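To: structure subgroup
Subject: Chain for Friday's discussion

All,

I'm putting the inputs and outputs inline so they're searchable in the archive.
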Amino acid sequence: MNFPESSSGVASALQWKTYGVSRLEKQALLNFILGGLTMRGCRIVSASDPRRAPFYIVLETPAGERHAVLAYAFRAGAKLTKKRPTNEHRFQIKYGGKLKGILEVAIDPTAVVTTIFLGIDLERQVFVAADPLMNAPSPMSSSVEFKAHHVAEIAAQGWHAWERERRGPKTRSRPTAEIDEDTRIQILVGGTQDRVYDLIVLERLALGLDPGERHLIADRLAEHPSRQQVASVSHKLLEELQLEPEALFDLIEGAARLKMAVRGWVAEQHLETALTAVPGVSDCRRINAEGQPDISLRWKGSPPILIECKNVLRKRDAAGFARVDFQKTRASISDPCSRYYSPADFTLLAACLHAVSEEWEFSYALTADLPPHAKCDSKISNRIVVQQPLFTTDPASVLDRHAS
């Protein structure tokens, strides 16, 4: 199904699968979304029939801009469940009576249509949203859980973001275990009804970003007045990238996947600039190839040395150290350990500290020194703490250690 919607001022070639649902159940969820948008002065140009999910909405901002939104919305609440924590809230990912199968979540790589993926608690008048890209696709009947204190924080502050540990299916006998799920830490964002528009802003800015950078943008949105519009948030983002506008546009023009991961590429750009300036480094370049490390360089005439750049998570550990969720987005279904990195994949890990320091700075470690994975032989742990002496901000000392 697709909605070119030329009459509404939004044109897109995006197609998505629709599901038959109960009007009685879904009308209230659609009303919550539409009501939240009108609270912010948006005009609803069109909205799809609530008997079909997901909802397709075209809105016009007070500034006259039109945006299309695809909303995968589910009922959230605190229903007591046997053998589950009493303080647990959740929303179940399913449409109609489907308890098995796969929910296909549509994502528009051109960003003409913005996808949101959320649970709505009608009793408490709040929502909790997950990263749509990390949930594309999703097993039907799976749940997104959160705690009562998260809901309390949302109600008190109006907007709240936090980390959620995510694990794959417990048994391979489930048909949905065939999905290669993204098991990285994901960021949940909750808001009151009037912050639905901010969720759309978040998804427009954060599509494809690592969890730490997504968390940072969510925190920044919390700092803005409730009527902050997209244009000024985008301007704030451009300032934060610390690049001249012409340089940023050149980057976007030269890299198709940049639209899906702007900050990741900007981190690599800053890393390349920082390493090029180190005396003894030559032939420093970005590799720009899918599935390959990010940077290649020579140290004092050495053979090429490969470096992987990873963004840290927004939240520090209890001791105040930054953390890296060190795993790939996807893995082979037949080999779950392929999700994790091996010291043979590259020589150095460069941890980008931007999500915690809000500066484009890096800390370096040799992959041979990183802790091993607890269950996968010859693999590196996915829980990396950025602290001395394992990491250092001096790349020359790490490169010298590798050469010795």
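Points worth raising on Friday:
Residues 170-177, 228-235, 251-261 have pLDDT under 50 and may be disordered.
The chain has two domains: 6-237, 245-403.

D.
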